[in-house]
Amino acid sequence: MPFDVEREVRFGLACGPGSDGRWRGWFRVEVTAEALWRLGLHPGQPSSVVDGPSPPGWWHAAGERYALTRQVS
After folding, report:
1. Is-contact 4 23, C-beta < 8 A?
2. CB 3.0 to 4.6 Å from 8: which of 13, 35, 46, 58, for a disulfide?
3. Quick one: which H or E segment has residue 65?
């Protein structure tokens, strides 16, 4: 794993009843900024912000079908 899990990653879990009375759970994963910078991930990257609408659903489905049918050599 590219992170020092003991110092750079934190995991959290919260549980509680929802508005309908059923119990729900939420996970939270936090990674320090320094660890992300090491991987080249930072807010200054053009791809780190949404720059347009998401592609339509058929586009995602076609990509998944392609990935499943593609043969790896």
Report:
1. no
2. 35
3. helix 57-69
* 25 SS3 class: strand
Question: In the block, which residue shows the tokens 């936090």?
Answer: 30
Please give the pLDDT value at position 17: 93
**In tens digits, what is the pLDDT along the chain, a chain of 73 residues?**
578 888 999 999 999 998 999 999 999 999 998 888 888 887 777 666 677 888 898 988 998 888 888 766 5
Q: What single DSSP character describes residue 47?
A: G
The span from the CA of 35 to the CA of 2, in Å, is: 8
Q: Which two tokens stand for residue 34?
A: 């320094």
Cβ 34 vs Cβ 40: under 8 Å: no
